[in-house]
Write a structure and sequence with these properties.
single chain; mainly alpha; DNA Binding (I), subunit A
């Protein structure tokens, strides 16, 4: 309740609150497990390292998904988005030729070429995002808030306090 309106804790609270399927304590547990797994697979702790599932990186699957994306790029839906000229990530205005098609959940991490997963973005944001997902961004923000002490505690639960 006490988190700042734009903080990752408040965004996570809204995201988790829909339908009540997942509580903040459960998200904290997932976050801790994700950090443990990341450290095991990458001792340096770099957030840019991902273990990719071979099923998601199958060349035949990637080819099919890229073909779907090429078809969607010609659709009126995509042309309308690009002609607005707004980058999905930074919100800046660009000419349509400066925007690229980005998979919010990358194909290599199981994403698909569907309208719900494709967004227009500038080249700089697309390169910076890399193989990241929106959930990765939330977790990074939560970690930063927890380290700085600015978070409301959405990333902490009773286990953190007792042990």
């Amino acid at each position: 309740m006490g988190s700042a309106p734009g903080s990752a804790s408040s965004m996570l609270g809204r995201w988790v609150g829909r339908g009540g399927q997942m509580r903040a304590g459960m998200v904290a547990l997932i976050f801790r497990q994700m950090n443990k797994n990341l450290k095991k697979s990458n001792p340096s702790g770099s957030a840019d390292y991902y273990t990719l599932d071979p099923e998601h990186t199958d060349p035949a699957r990637l080819k099919r998904e890229r073909e779907k994306a090429r078809k969607l790029r010609k659709s009126q839906w995509w042309l309308d988005l690009v002609n607005r000229g707004i980058c999905h990530y930074c919100g800046e205005k660009f000419s349509p030729g400066q925007l690229t098609m980005d998979h919010r959940i990358p194909l290599a991490r199981g994403g698909t070429s569907t309208q719900g997963n494709l967004v227009p973005c500038c080249k700089a944001c697309n390169n910076q995002k890399g193989l990241g997902t929106p959930v990765d961004d939330l977790f990074r923000q939560l970690e930063a808030e927890r380290n700085s002490g600015d978070g409301s505690g959405a990333a902490s639960d009773d286990e953190d306090k007792s042990g």
